[in-house]
Every structure is written in C-alpha cells, then in structure tokens.
C-alpha cells in the first residue's frame, strides 16, 4: 500500500479536548505540526509505543544504544543530567555534528533524563517559556522541536503518535522501532497512572479518573474520534498496533518491533536483536553497561534520579508481565 492510502486508512482525528482522555494534557499543536513536516534523515530512529507499554524503558535502552561508545561509556557531553553550557556557550545553534546539546543555557541533552515527545514541545527555542527553559530537572516543555532536530546523529524521536501523524518523509527516509506490551498489563498500568496524574500534575484528568476502571476500559477499546484537526488521539490499543504492523510492511527492514516481556525474560537477546536491526555495533562492554543503565528489575533510569525524585509521587508502577500478547501475533 502507498503512504497516501495508509493516511486515508488512519484519517480519523481528534478535536481539542472534545473527547477527554484521548488528547494528552501535554499536547502542543506547534510541536505536532513541526514534527509532521520534519524532513527525516536516513539514520533517524522514531520510537513508537502505545501509552504504558514501556516507553520510558525503551527510550532509555535506545538512547544508550545509539549514544554509547564501544567501551560502554557515553561521550561526556551526552551523559544524562550534564550541562553543555561550558562547551556550547549556551548557544542555541550548537551544531549537531559536534554532538553538543542544542539546548541553550546548559539544558541537558534531549532524551538523556527522560523522553521528550515532539507533540509536547513548541516548535522553536525562542517560543519556549524562559521559566520552563530554566527548570531543573527539565521537563518536556523545557525543550522545543528545534532542540530535537539538532540532536547528534542518529537522532532519536520518542512518541505515542499514531502512524498517520508521523513525518510525511518517513516512507523515504528514517527507521522505526515499535515497543509492544501485553494489553492487559498496559491497561492496568494506565488506570493507576491516570489516578496519580489526576491527583498531582494533571488535574484536568480528574474527570476521567473519577469514571472508574470500567469506563476507562471502554475508552481503551474505543477508536471513536472527531475529524476536525490534524491530530488523532492514541485511540484504542489494537488499531494502534494494527497500523504499526501496516507501517512495518511498508518500511520493510527499516521497522522493527521490541517486546516488553522479552526484555524482562531475555534482555541480552532482545537488545542484541534490536542492535542488529539498527545496525549498531554491540560489544560485551556495551551490553553490560546497558544492564546498568536500564536494569531488568525496574523501569527507573539510575542516571535520572533527580528527575525521578521530582516525579516520585507520580511514577510508581504496578503490574507484572504476562503472556496474552506474544511476539508471534505480529509475525
């Protein structure tokens, strides 16, 4: 199928907050538009996952895999939590070719503390609120699409966006990694996460949280949306991954799937398979470092402890992996 026919297949869109819970509270129209118009590069990696399917864990793995040296260390200017102000002079145009952060004012490198969603940021550095820009540890809205586009190659973009909202140049250039998790575990995790967000940093989710788990389950299974703007919500789990399978068929070996359950039962094997798919050299030292950076026992990034403490009332996790969704379903 052509990209255009797939766009028609996925042409339902969400209008503002008309359907509470489908539009993420962090959504930024400017960043969303800039990402869709972005010219992808051949070595770009776009990491997709449905919410609560191991996004943070997968981002940590990919960030380390793409940035680490053969000895399992990161270049000094890319170590999570570090500032580049001394090397970059705070300049907004620190070049991607140098590997220095594009973030002015010594902002940690995008993706080093946590994933930064393209649809959660504004389009340019100049339009970022100075107070948000100066926040430490930074949050997603401390960055802009300009920061993300100035990442050193290979660039990493992490998102919950559906296939229809990805850059229009992706059929020609760029690679995709899709993280899949058992839908039952993803739903239970989502239910409890919404409760925590509603009582803390996103009170706008209170209405959804108060509906209870049964109502949230119906939303989880629903693909209904409103064709008014260029944005479609996450929609239901099953159509989200159906479209990802269609994308994989279109891109061929430029798209690969990563499985949450496999990472817990065979981390070494799954990471080696992912590295091979991305054509990333993987030494024994690098694998050992990855186990430290992204331990199997927990979903926390040890380099991100300042951020974890800032969000400790929000980020606790529940649930254990099960076997309802298995990799063979995507064969």
Note down, in words, how this protein is organized:
It is built from 13 helices and 4 strands. The N terminus and C terminus are likely disordered. With 331 residues, it is of the alpha/beta class. The two termini are 18 Å apart. Strands 2-1-3-4 form a 4-stranded parallel β-sheet, with helices on both faces. 37% of the residues lie in helices and 6% in strands. The chain is globular.
Q: What pattern of helices and strands is seen along the backbone?
A: HHEHHHHEEHHHEHHHH
Mean pLDDT: 75
Helix content: 25-40%
Unreliable runs: 1-21, 81-105, 224-231, 297-331
Alpha-carbon distance between the two ends = 18 Å
Computed over alpha carbons, the radius of gyration is 19 Å
Shape: globular
Spatial order of strands in the largest sheet = 2-1-3-4
- Strand share of the residues? 5-15%
Oligomer: single chain
Largest sheet: 4 strands, parallel
Structural class call reads: alpha/beta
Number of strands: 4
Query: Number of helix segments?
Result: 13
Give me a quick take on this structure.
The chain contains 13 helices and four strands. The protein has 331 residues and is of the alpha/beta class.
How does the SSE layout of this entry go?
Layout: H1 3-9, H2 29-37, E1 45-49, H3 55-67, H4 85-88, H5 130-134, H6 145-149, E2 156-159, E3 175-180, H7 183-198, H8 206-221, H9 237-251, E4 255-259, H10 260-265, H11 267-277, H12 284-293, H13 305-310
Parallel strand pairs: 1-2, 1-3, 3-4
């Amino acid at each position: 199928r052509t990209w255009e026919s797939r766009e028609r297949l996925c042409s339902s869109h969400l209008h503002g907050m008309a359907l509470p819970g489908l539009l993420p509270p962090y959504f930024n129209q400017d960043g969303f538009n800039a990402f869709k118009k972005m010219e992808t590069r051949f070595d770009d990696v776009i990491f997709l996952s449905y919410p609560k399917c191991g996004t943070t864990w997968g981002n940590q793995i990919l960030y380390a895999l793409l940035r680490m040296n053969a000895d399992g260390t990161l270049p000094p200017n890319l170590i999570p939590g570090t500032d580049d102000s001394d090397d970059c002079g705070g300049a907004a145009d620190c070049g991607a070719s140098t590997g220095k952060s594009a973030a002015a004012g010594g902002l940690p490198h995008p993706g080093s503390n946590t994933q930064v969603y393209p649809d959660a940021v504004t389009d340019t550095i100049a339009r970022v609120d100075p107070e948000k820009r100066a926040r430490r540890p930074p949050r997603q809205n401390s960055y802009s699409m300009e920061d993300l586009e100035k990442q050193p190659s290979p660039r990493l973009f992490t998102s919950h966006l559906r296939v229809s909202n990805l850059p229009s140049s992706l059929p020609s250039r760029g690679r995709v990694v899709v993280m899949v998790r058992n839908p039952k575990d993803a739903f239970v995790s989502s239910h409890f996460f919404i409760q925590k967000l509603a009582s803390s940093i996103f009170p706008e989710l209170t209405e959804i949280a108060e509906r209870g788990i049964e109502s949230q389950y119906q939303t989880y299974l629903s693909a209904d949306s409103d064709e008014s703007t260029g944005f479609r919500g996450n929609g239901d789990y099953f159509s989200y991954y159906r479209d990802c399978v269609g994308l994989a068929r279109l891109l061929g070996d430029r798209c690969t799937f990563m499985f949450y359950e496999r990472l817990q039962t065979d981390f070494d094997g799954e990471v080696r398979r992912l590295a091979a798919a991305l054509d990333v050299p993987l030494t024994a030292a690098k694998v050992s470092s990855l186990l430290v950076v992204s331990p199997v026992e927990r979903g926390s990034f040890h380099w991100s402890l300042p951020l974890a403490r800032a969000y400790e009332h929000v980020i606790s996790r529940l649930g254990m992996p099960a076997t309802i969704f298995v990799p063979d379903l995507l064969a």
